Amino acid sequence: MALPEIAVGDAMLSATSGKFPRVTEDQHVDSAVEEVAAEILGLDPTGARWGAVIRHTYDMIYNGPETGRFRWSQLMKTEKTHFGTVFEINAQREFGFDGGDKTDYRIAGHQVDAKWSQSEGGWMLPPEVFDEIALVATGSDPDAQFSLGLIRVVEAYRREGANRDKKSSLNPAGRRSIRWLWRNAPIPASILLQLPDEVVTHIFASRYGTQRVNRLFRAAEGRLVHRNTVRTVAMQLDDQKRVRMNGGARSALKPEGYIILSSYHTHLAKALGVPQPDDKHYISVRVTPGGNNDPLIQGCRWKRASPEDPICEAPTLPDRGVREN
Question: In the chain, N or C terminus with fewer CB closer than 10 Å?
Fold first, then answer.
């Protein structure tokens, strides 16, 4: 992959818009950093894979199916500290990076150490990463965003002094010199952090997992719901059992006019004008009888219901791979 051309002082946009970030006038071009950047961007041009890694890391730390937790403030201090290690491991599994000699990875032939902080600039840098390249990342689960960049941890970019573990952090010049690959790029959102607090409280108020899942799909109509969110609300590992027709949310919500679409029903989601679920998401849609241009389900035409439309029983979704003409 050809390396990107970087002109000192150019006002460039972040990689989230398909261009490369600005290089400040006091920053020289580090060819090794650029080679690592090119390798990472070649593996994941949009940042979607990194976003999925971070989503998975949050979900692993929350351990929702066993604990019912879904937000950072619910974690213990030791669990928060463990996030960076899990992030590093998940990224290596996703991208197949080689292990470094004294750092986490070897990328494009260069030593690279992964560092995570919930707050930008809070990365703690041990002596083994001094003068090496750090992959620095931060994110916000409530905002469903992450940022990720590269920086060579030279002395001029480190704070003077160190803590008792001999760790340092980036000084203002170092933070300004980060080679950002993504800034405020999306991660798959947790719907439980997007819904109003009183709605989430109502969802979890039931002692029964099935009822909690039903409440979730009513509240999140027309919005993607991650499979792990279903597991968290149900406090059960088998999300498909809680969603399916025979005793799950599909059968419980059918009389109320709801269908619950999965990745097998992307054509219906598109036709109904809602986001299309992938293999990690569901989406509930309340439907009402439609017209000739609306999708055909169980022999009749259906459209997405408006709040004013009366409740009517929803159709049964077609079997996997079946499309009605």
Answer: C
